[in-house]
Amino acid sequence: xxxxxxxxxxxxxxxxxxxxxxxxxxxxxxxxxxxxxxxxxxxxxxxxxxxxxxxxxxxxxxxxxxxxxxxxxxxxxxxxxxxxxxxxxxxxxxxxxxxxxxxxxxxxxxxxxxxxxxxxxxxxxxxxxxxxxxxxxxxxxxxxxxxxxxxxxxxxxxxxxxxxxxxxxxxxxxxxxxxxxxxxxxxxxxxxxxxxxxxxxxxxxxxxxx
Length: 210
Fold this sequence. Notes:
By secondary structure, the chain is of the alpha/beta class. It has helices spanning 4-19, 33-40, 60-65, 77-86, 121-134, 169-179, and strands at 48-52, 69-74, 91-94, 107-113, 135-145, 150-157, 160-166, 182-191, 194-202. It is globular and about 45 Å long.
C-alpha cells in the first residue's frame, strides 16, 4: 500500500494539467488576489519568499517573481517541471516540505495554500516551528489550513486518490500562537457546506528586541 507521501506525489503527477491549466485556472482555483496583495504590500521590494506546495507556479510564483526573490517547492515531479517552464524567473525544487532545512531568518514571507494539510498531522506542528525560525523578525506566514479535524484518503479527487490530514481551526490557532506567531488576519474560505481557514501570521519583531 502506498504511503501518504506517495499518494500525494503520484496524485498530483496524474492530475496536474486537469487541476490547473497553464494560466492557473482550474476546477479548484481558490487563490485570492486579495491575500497575495495583502502580503505584497507589507514587503519591501526584493524580499525573499518561500512557497510550500507551489504546484505549477501560477498564479503565485508569477505574481511575486515580478518584484521579489521566490523559491517554490513541491513534492510532485510534474508540477515542478511545469513550474520551471511557466515561471522561468523563479526558482523551484522538488522536495518533501517536512524534510526542508534552511538557515534561521532566511525568508521575509512563507506561503502555503492547502499544502501543509497534505502532511500527516504529527509532522505539521514541527513544521510550524521550523517556519517560525526560517522567517526574519517581522516576517509573514500565509497559509490555508483546516476548519475541522479529519484524516483520510479521498477517492476520485479530480480523478485521483488524495491524502489529507488536518486539525480543527481552534487547534491551529493554539499551535501557531504557541510557536510564537501573532495571528493578524483569519478568514473562512467557504467550499459548499464546508471550507478551510486562511491564516495570515506575523513573526513579531519585538521578541528580538528590535
